[in-house]
Amino acid sequence: MTKKMWAVGEDDGEGWIAVSADTEAAAKRAYTDEWHGADVKVPGHIIAQRVEAWDALTGAPEGKDWLTAGLSYLCEGGCGSMACLDGAGKIIDGKPYCEDCPN
Ligand SMILES: [Zn+2]
User: Fold this and answer.
1) N or C: which end of the chain has fewer CB within 10 A?
2) How far is ligand 1, taken at its centre, from the CA of residue 72, in Å?
3) pTM: predicted TM-score of the whole model, two decimal places
4) Looking at the 3D structure of the chain, how many domains does it have?
5) How is residue 85 annotated by DSSP?
6) Cα of 90 to ligand 1 centre, how many Å?
7) DSSP readout, 19-79?
8) Average pLDDT over residues 3-19
9) What's the gap in Å between 84 CA and the centre of ligand 1?
10) pLDDT per residue over 35-82, tens digit each?
11) How many CA atoms lie within 13 A of 73 on its CB side?
């Protein structure tokens, strides 16, 4: 069976998770179950972005997989910033770093 992977989160960009689901609606449902509970209606500001590059992964996407998919991920430098390749972020030894790390 082929997986369909999605990056799902709130439109403010925090707390996104990777979800395997057949449809966009199912991906949003899975996110809502995870963070809000199975009895909660899916909030309107949830975004589910299809990430075909993740379909072939055997495990959950790692930080570098979020970056190469054009998304952001928490910097491994411990600074609390998000790393993304759109800015000056980079991948070192398979881990994501923001523009200011490592230093
Ligand atoms: Zn950093």
Assistant:
1) N
2) 12
3) 0.87
4) 2
5) T
6) 10
7) EE-SSHHHHHHHHHHHHT-TTSPPPTTEEEEE-GGGTT-SS---HHHHHHTT--EE-TTSS
8) 90
9) 10
10) 999 999 999 999 999 999 999 999 999 999 999 999 999 999 999 999
11) 23
Ligand 1 center to 3 CA (angstroms): 32
Answer yes or no: are the C-beta atoms of 65 and 54 closer than 8 Å. Answer: yes
User: In whole angstroms, what separates CA 66 from the centre of its chain?
Assistant: 6
Determine the distance separating the centroid of ligand 1 and the alpha carbon of 55, expressed in angstroms: 28
Does 8 share its domain with 27? yes
H or E stretch at 17? strand 17-20
CA of 89 to the centre of ligand 1 (A): 8
Parent domain of 92:
62-103
Q: In what order do the strands lie in the sheet with 5-10?
A: 17-20, 5-10, 46-50
